[in-house]
Specification:
45% of the residues lie in helices and 10% in strands. The protein is of the alpha/beta class and 323 residues long. A 5-stranded parallel sheet has the order 1-2-3-7-6, sandwiched between helices. The chain is globular and about 65 Å long. The termini are far apart.
Length: 323
């Protein structure tokens, strides 16, 4: 787990640099949320699937998603995230707030009807619990006992709006209204997140329906590289959050318990540096996709005007005509 957390953080930092250099259009960092993501991902089985937001890169790499493919979405290619969601157990990145939860419920119901014991885990932030998609998905999952785990990474901010200004009450208590368990956990404690997620997955797999997990954590950086968090957030708040850093905490625990040594920590850091450089080189070298891809899958029987646009676009791009 420590290895994956270190890999994810170094890659996250490199992505922010890439965005600042214009190699990525925008990028939503997740520094501080590695414990919640890695702990939850480690609780999933091969056949389970993650329905992510746009901030789950750590979960993605644990699930085996190629980070270069994942980051092509943020580079603005038309293919978005060209990895296989079924093979990786990681659905395409979802930018709209909360809309991936109904998808997760639908997938979970399908798995149940197929007689599979696979589980879907839908990831959201605290802001998504104010959206209708969350409530519709929670109600349907409860009524149908869908094998679903809702993982809410409560990082304190819904873009620029603090938690206290976006909802009343407690996120974890929202599960009560739908009749399934809600569990609040320290999202900066990777082992605690792993434990509660494993229990929730086991419950879902056993036919006992959904669980809501509220992982309390903190988004150290801004909402994305396109926003300036210093305009709405106190620097002292960030300093206090850094004192609860999940990697520092878990590393200290492993060293104190002699589960790991300094050599292992150093090896993780070296591997993370190599990964970041490898991803950078591959991503920057990735050519744009064929212009013709813009026109694929739009019509079964394209009208003549559409085909004319297609021919003109590919001609201007210097691409060969489509067969």
């Amino acid at each position: 787990m420590l290895r994956w957390m270190v890999l994810a953080r170094r890659l996250d930092a490199e992505c922010i640099t890439l965005a600042n250099e214009g190699e990525l259009i925008t990028y939503p960092g997740f520094e501080g949320q590695e414990g919640a993501q890695v702990g939850a991902a480690f609780a999933l089985g091969t056949d389970d699937i993650v329905f992510p937001t746009f901030r789950e890169l750590a979960m993605a790499i644990v699930r085996g998603v190629d980070p270069v493919a994942y980051l092509r979405y943020h580079r603005g290619t038309w293919h978005g995230a060209p990895y296989d969601p079924i093979v990786s157990g990681f659905a395409p990145i979802c930018v709209p707030t909360g809309t991936q939860l109904p998808h997760a419920v639908g997938w979970a119901l399908g798995a149940k009807l197929d007689g599979s014991d696979a589980v879907a885990i839908g990831c959201i932030g605290d802001g998504a619990t104010s959206e209708g998609d969350f409530h519709e998905a929670a109600n349907l999952a409860a009524v149908w006992d869908a094998p679903l785990v809702i993982l809410c990474q409560n990082n304190g901010w819904a873009i620029t709006t603090p938690l206290a200004e976006q909802l009343r009450g407690e996120i974890v208590r929202r599960a009560d209204g739908y009749g399934f368990p809600g569990i609040r956990v320290d999202g900066n404690d990777v082992l605690a997140v792993h434990q509660v997620t494993r229990d929730a997955v086991r419950r879902a797999r056993g036919g006992d329906g959904p669980t809501l997990i509220e992982a309390i954590t903190y988004r150290i950086g801004p909402h994305s590289t396109n926003d300036d968090a210093s305009r709405y957030r106190d620097a002292r708040e960030v300093e206090l959050a850094r004192e609860l850093d999940p990697i520092t905490r878990f590393r200290a625990f492993l060293l104190a318990e002699r589960v790991a040594d300094e050599g292992f920590v150093l090896a993780c850091e070296r591997e993370a540096e190599a990964l970041a450089m490898r991803v950078r080189e591959a991503l920057v070298a990735t050519p744009p996709p064929p212009v013709d891809d813009l026109f694929a899958f739009v019509y079964v029987e394209p009208p003549s005007s559409f085909e004319a646009q297609r021919r003109e676009a590919t001609r201007q791009a210097g691409e060969p005509p489509r067969a």
